[in-house]
Amino acid sequence: AWTGPSKEEVLRLRKAHLNPAIFHHFKKPVMIVDGKMQYLFDETGRRYLDAFAGIVTVSVGHCHPEVNKAVIEQTQRLQHTTTIYLNDQVAEYAKELTDKLPGDLKVAYFVNSGSEANDMAMMMARLYTGAHDIVTLRNAYHGLSEATMGLLGQHTWKYPVPQGFGVHHALNPNPYRGVFGNDGPAYARDMEDLIKAATPGRVAGFIHETIQGVGGAVPLADGYLPAAYKLIRDAGGVCIADEVQTGFGRTGSAYWGFQNQGVIPDIVTMAKGIGNGLPLGAVVTTPEIAAVLAQRLHFNTFGGNPVSMAAGRAVLRVIDQEQLQGNCAQAGGYLLDRLRQLQERHDIIGDVRGKGLMVGVELVKDRQTKEPAVQETATVFERCKDLGLLLGKGGLHGNAFRIKPPMCWTKDDVNFAVAVLDQALSEL
Ligand code: PMP
């Protein structure tokens, strides 16, 4: 039984001493004190099915025994020295991680978060090309450091500080709401215009998620990436895939999100699920791009620390051993089928989308006008929590559910989640 401080006390401490800009889900917030694989437990011992995985971070399962064992063993042996001494963990992990990537993507940089990884990727692109301009997408989320805030395509998180110098936001190739529907090459033609209009004609690069996560699990229109990559490369730029949410098999059909559109980026950034909850981020690039950064020394105190490395290595092993990519394809395919059936019975469901266990459900007041059903989304979200399901929520209008659970979800978990959603929607 829980012997720590009460929920009320924790809330009081949070209000008194924590960053006032952090937010919590639910009017009556949930306090989570235990986790086991796809389940979370509050201080009363009540179990919830986790559909959001600590914001797509707990990839292989909460407190997965093999990851825990690797972390505990490494913690007991050696926690920290930095890369000024040789250590096996960071070297072996760099090999194991880059083995998972196609083409010439063979050099790894380790950092501690997604924002840091994308900061680094932007700098690499600029140094390698000698150009400054970077193209990003409206509705994008790549972090909240000063540089990555400039990439943001959502006002919700932006501060009115100088940011985004040299950054250009292209039209979002959103198949559901975008002006060109699911016609990827049409959006790319607009990017061609943007490059000509807003840059010197030469760019440093283009950064994208393959399914926009914070933006509401929005996949990029079919055929968009091959066309966009060609334009960017013709303008001298490099292509950066942000795999912070879509990597490590989550989309089921591929290990990396970008593979779903048949492209190979020049730089790949990772965080979140890479460490199953431990602070870990990475940038992987080609030897040619990495060589340009070798003009100066580079250092990151916690980057490559043995404990995070041990976690990262265990995550890679577990994904393979438990065939979690295949499970994402199976459980995710079944989830999408069941949600589309639900859509036939609930007019409020405007769109069901995604791949594998990276799924979005958008609620609208009217299927023709697509007016966001903001209040209804909040009500259903709250009700699902009461019924034992912790969904994610997002999108620019806050009217999309994000279902991105630990990758070990089973068919039973899908059935439970869909039944809960069905009940909550029926009660509206
Ligand atoms: N990229 C993507 C796609 C993300 O979803 C996030 C976090 N939501 C980030 C980058 C930033 O990661 P972090 O919060 O670890 O800085």
UniProtKB/TrEMBL annotation:
A single BP term in Gene Ontology: glyoxylate catabolic process
Name this polypeptide is given: alanine--glyoxylate transaminase
Highest taxon in the source lineage: Eukaryota
Cofactor: pyridoxal 5'-phosphate
SUBUNIT field: Homotetramer.
Boundaries of the shown chain within the full protein: 235 to 662 of 662
Broad class of the protein's primary localization: mitochondrion
UniProt record similarity statement: Belongs to the class-III pyridoxal-phosphate-dependent aminotransferase family.
Enzyme Commission number(s): 2.6.1.44
Keyword Nuclease: no
Any one GO cellular component localisation term in the record: mitochondrion
Gene Ontology molecular function terms on file: alanine-glyoxylate transaminase activity; pyridoxal phosphate binding
This protein's UniProt keywords: Aminotransferase, Membrane, Mitochondrion, Pyridoxal phosphate, Transferase, Transit peptide, Transmembrane, Transmembrane helix
Location in or out of the cell: Mitochondrion
